[in-house]
Write a structure and sequence with these properties.
112 residues; mainly alpha; 71% helix; elongated
Amino acid sequence: MSKALLALTSIALLGLSACADLQSTKPAEAQPAKPTISAEAQSALSAAQADVKTAKSKNALWTTADNALKAAETAAEKGDSATVLKDAKVASDQAHKGLAQLNYPLLKVGGD
């Protein structure tokens, strides 16, 4: 009886070690490659981010610039260079206009 029990225990341990070995030798699942954008699109996105940051720091950020930058960043995550270029250009343009607006004279209504 003890020999049979020893044999069964040995077989069970051997089987468990084989199962454990299968788990450790499985190749790691490949991560999907992150989409990339062109160098020109990356440069435009970086410039737009800097322009929006500057406008925001001077309290001159227009919501249209912020929205365009968010759209450009979303397009960059998807790897859509054409959309990044288009939206980054809008973001930079709107940020520059917001900064230029700081130089406008104050409007006085009903004054002397």
